[in-house]
Structures
1.
Amino acid sequence: MLWTDVNEIAIELYENHPDTDPTYILFTDLRDMVVDLDDFQDDPKKSNEKILETIQMLWIEERD
């Protein structure tokens, strides 16, 4: 997965962290969670606030 695979990342986060409420997660923690995903292969430094916000919003939608 790459940073651009926001939908896939959100699904993986939902599946790997079912007890985590993404509404209140810090972007630094979210970035670390994404980088720690088994299939994630992109440069951790390529993340930005817009990408992380998109992932967070999709994760929230996935929970609901």
2.
Amino acid sequence: MDRLAIVVPCYNEEEVLQIASKALREVLDGLVKKGKIGADSFILFVNDGSKDRTWELIEAEHAAYPAQVFGVKLAGNVGHQFALTAGLITAKDLSDVTISIDADLQDDVNVIEEMIDKFHAGNDIVYGVRKERKTDTFFKRTTAQGFYKVMELMGVKTVYNHADFRLMSKRAVEQFSKYKETNLFLRGMVPLIGYQTDCVYYDRLERVAGESKYPLKKMLALAFNGISSFSVKPISMILGVGIFIVIASVLAAVYALISFFTGHVVPGWTSLILSIWFLGGLQLLAIGLVGQYIGKIYIEVKQRPRYNIEKVLTNEEA
């Protein structure tokens, strides 16, 4: 029977961790009773440098349920995508199939059984896709939907209304582990694996406790990282803007020269306007062409570790 690992990245989740642990353990128990997963299946909480009691609670849950609750403590806060990656890579060697889900339980745990059914039907990757976002604020819903549309416009392959709630087979995670880039955007990376996929659909729920760890600033950073990591269209767009400004500067030059020869200009205005328009266009063209992408190359070539694991709690030593 396949061993399932449910990977849960956590950052300051002391208010919700025990609730999430109970709900996920109940899911595991139900699937084991139905004979759909092995009795040695487990939950793997990944503590992403939390500043509250998250790790202490993970240790307590492991002590109470050593066969079902495992933990990974990262040496510092590295961000959601890195923490999730650390959990997946750790779970890869301990399980046959993994499911990633956030601790806030806004993703419906009741569709996990459907994910397992689709895995048994031959799918290596099963995406959890939100039907609607009624529980989100108007601003959050609008910006999230705009995010997916912008990603599509930029040519980044993603699954619409899918976050990081997904099932991956062991071989899918093994292939994912071969992607060594530092600029992680899992929603764009997983579709690149290319194995057979399917989707399950669910209604997004209210957060059971605590507050969102993805404010607008982090959402924008995630969107920009996804676009710049998977698409060169921003370069083409800035190139187009630069060309447009250079052309506009030529037209401005014609107008400035006509004004000069007809005497309808103050002294020095012609040379000033020509230099501002032309040099401004060239600078935008050059800076936009190389800036962000050189920055990403700079980060990648360092080949620094994406995360450091301080401690792992399992029952494998037993």
3.
Amino acid sequence: MPFPNHPDKHDAEALVTPQKHNEYKDSRGDVEVTEPPEAVVLCYSRSLMGYFTESYDGQEVGLYYGDLYVFDDADRRVGVMGNFGIGAPTTAMLMDELIADGVEAFLSIGFAGCLDDAIDMGEFIVCEKAIRDEGTSHHYAESETFAHPSDSLVAETERLLADRDEPFHVGPSWTTDAIYRETKEEVRRYAEEGVLTVEMEASAVFSVAAHRGADAAAMFVVSDYLGLTDWEPKFHLTAEDMRRLGDTAKEILESYVS
């Protein structure tokens, strides 16, 4: 069976569009409409989202599923979207709505399982491309192995990390919908191919952004190691690394839109 199932879907007109949905929300009139930022950090960690809102003055923007918070010290040109869960489908929906409202760039950040034990805890991983092993991206672009981030935003990410002497690695990630179906055979294959990480959103983020004409990149910290015979969870050791990742992502987008 082809995927998506309906032939020639990518050239067909969508019935429900982000613009129509946003117009419906605006027409309700029960939430104050605030101008969205130019760039948004996509945040999947509740604790990291709490850190953002507690550490930086800002304003919440209503009308979205989840919380969009814009930063005062960035002249409200940069914000963070969080508290909406994890995974590609909801992330794609929110990106569509935010792009329709004027957001131009996204930096997706969060945990990632690591397939390379030479990468130390606390070192950042910049995603150079993502394996499309989730379902959402295939509704936005013809099926192929990889989705790619925006060259300009990846370059700005690498520049800022280098300027800060921040240890980081650049490489492919494996995006999947099913974390409890990451098989040993897949881990072995992707590790041998040089894939550094596994997570749940990057390939969809890149595909939606490319389809809609926005910029997108992704950056991770290691939360666990996937070996050929064992799994080493280290989520409990990542709190400080995640806060540093959040601060760095905010700074990257501020530089990018300046």
4.
Amino acid sequence: MAIDLDQLRTFVAVAEAGGLTPAAETLHLSLPAISRRLSALEEELGVALLLRSTRRVALTQTGREFLPRARRLLDELEESLLGIRETAAQRRGLVTLACIPTAAYYFLPATLAAFARRFPAVRVRAMDLSAEGVADAVATGAAEFGIGMEGAAHAQVEFRPLRRDPFVLACRHDHPLARRRVVRWAELDGQRLVGVSRRSGNRLILDRALAPHGIRPAWHYEAEHLSTSLGLVEAGLGVAVVPRLALPRDPHPVLVARPLRDPQVDRATGLLLKRGAEPGPAARALIELLERGMRAALPADARRGAA
């Protein structure tokens, strides 16, 4: 059977328009071309689909039965073609994302490695930015999506939380507090605390959470980035309060993390997407991997209850 897509589209257009002339205008074809396609379709099927007159056309009984089938065939073919195009698009191209430093350093590489195994021809550009910078990059379209924190979202950006990370105490394994299962904020009095600057979103979260409890840490050192804070701790200059995500998942040769309680302070981490914009196929594939990875369980030392 030699029925082609043009014949099916023409039949559906004529049936929906109720005449050859309006269908010809919709399809940008001449009336003779419309008639030839319909005649070829009817000849191939061996039945009449339309009753033609000088002013209008009407569907025969067979035509009325065939119309929903023709529509379904066209819809299924279009969906299949879109799926093929999307699959092809996933396998090439460029994905640009913006990411806060903690996720970029410790979390993102493992996900990108899994993504590269599935889509080796897709290039990835990762923008290492502050929480506000991530939101701005997504809002302006500089990045297709972002990995950031709650509270730094732009009006044009949707925040989709994926995990909550507690703030923990980071110290050297030979520090006295490393022998504790849980550390309380009150026990940090007299310690040389390493924190981040007031411009950091992490500092804002801590200040807002601790103020109702009357806790105002005396930060001895302030750094712009969490990685710098951890470097000072490694050097033995003090102890730091950082999100658990900032520390490696695997055991570190120098650093250990201990839960902080009374109060416990959490930070929501998740995806930032521009409202009304749809990431491309390759970006959506990467987002799916990130969602699975970011929802993974936290390390055991971040889940221990109070002692």
